[in-house]
Each structure stands twice: as structure tokens, then as C-alpha cells.
Write a structure and sequence with these properties.
- The structure is a single chain.
- By secondary structure, the protein is mainly alpha-helical.
- It has one domain.
- Helix content is 70%, strand content 0%.
- It contains five helices and no strands.
Length: 198
């Protein structure tokens, strides 16, 4: 069976596409869309985690190779291990940003009653991305600047950006709490305080 979302050929009887996670089963369109988005979210999460772990594994293997350890570039203080570390961080940063974008799109489709959770999850991913960016910039600053002031300015700016991202997410989560609790109460079939279940 071909996936209607990405046209990948899947095994007969598969419930989800093996490439994009789209729900292949029959059912009502809203349920199928939610199920497809949930599957795609799981696939995106698995891809991101495995890709990031794979990058760190490749980096660890590369820096242990004797010819990489002994490699030196004339006039450059950064070692090949640091260059590999920077390259991995650039790729990890890109993967985190792509994954955050996919979460912001797929989460509201997968969990419409809790769509605002996507803001919280993406905020955490963006703060992780800021940390990766700092790890990327730190060795470059050490190579370029003798004065610690540019690094201090970067630290302050990244801290303020992280605070702004998290504060925005906290406000949105706080404003969404009544709706979440109402959705949860309805899904558990619990009456509001002071009322009796029928």
C-alpha cells in the first residue's frame, strides 16, 4: 500500500507509513488525521534522536583515530577534534531547529485539545538550541578574541533570549490551563466540583 502522504510503498496491513508515520488505516477523517499526525510526530522524534546520537557517535569515533589526533594546521590553534565538535554542533543545531518546527506543526494536529503544549515543547527545544549555539560559539570566540568581553556579551544575550522564550511559553501554558483541565475532565468523564456524575 502506498502512503497517501509521501507515496512510500508500505507492507500490506501496515497501520502507519514506515517513512513519515502517516496513519494508513481506515476510520473517520478527524481520527485518521490525528493518528497520522501522532505517527508522524513519533517518526520525527525517532529520526531526530537517532540522527543526533549518530552524529555524536561518529564524532567520538573520528577524534579517536590516530591520524586525526595528530593532524595539525599551521597557524591555527583549533585542533581537528574541536573542528569536528563544531561541525557536529552545527548539524545538531540544525536538526533541533527542524525538529522544533515539525513539533510546532504536528503537535496541534495530533493533540488538538492540548495544542498549546507545542509552544512549551518548542520553547524547550529552542532553549536547548541556544545552549548548542553557545557550545558552538565558545571555541570560535576563544580562537578569535583574547578579550573575554565578546563571550560575556554573548552569554548575556543568550540568557535574555532564553528567558524571553521561556516566559512566553509559561504565559501561554498558564492561559491554556483552564482549557486543558476542561479537556482532561471531559476525557475522563469527571464532573466539575459540586456537580454529580450521571
Amino acid at each position: 500500500m502506498n502512503c497517501p502522504n509521501c507515496n512510500t510503498l508500505n507492507e500490506p496491513g501496515s497501520q502507519f507509513c514506515m517513512k513519515c508515520g502517516y496513519a494508513l488505516g481506515e476510520g473517520d477523517p478527524a481520527s485518521s488525521a490525528r493518528s497520522g499526525a501522532r505517527g508522524a510526530l513519533w517518526v520525527a522524534t525517532g529520526q531526530a534522536v537517532l540522527a543526533i546520537l549518530g552524529l555524536y557517535l561518529i564524532r567520538d569515533i573520528m577524534v579517536r583515530l590516530s591520524f586525526v589526533q595528530e593532524l595539525r594546521f599551521p597557524g591555527v590553534q583549533i585542533t581537528p577534534a574541536e573542528i569536528l565538535y563544531i561541525l557536529v554542533l552545527v548539524l545538531v543545531l540544525g536538526m533541533i531547529l527542524v525538529y522544533a518546527r515539525r513539533v510546532s506543526v504536528l503537535w496541534p494536529q495530533a493533540f488538538p485539545g492540548f495544542a498549546a503544549v507545542a509552544v512549551l515543547v518548542t520553547a524547550v527545544l529552542y532553549v536547548i538550541a541556544l545552549s548548542v549555539l553557545y557550545g558552538l560559539l565558545k571555541p570560535i570566540y576563544a580562537e578569535l578574541f583574547l578579550d573575554p568581553e565578546p563571550l560575556l556579551i554573548t552569554q548575556v544575550v543568550l540568557t535574555l533570549v532564553a528567558l524571553a522564550i521561556l516566559a512566553r511559553a509559561a504565559v501561554l501554558v498558564y492561559n491554556s490551563l483552564p482549557a486543558w483541565l476542561d479537556n482532561l475532565r471531559h476525557s475522563l468523564n469527571v464532573s466539575p466540583p459540586g456537580q454529580i456524575n450521571r
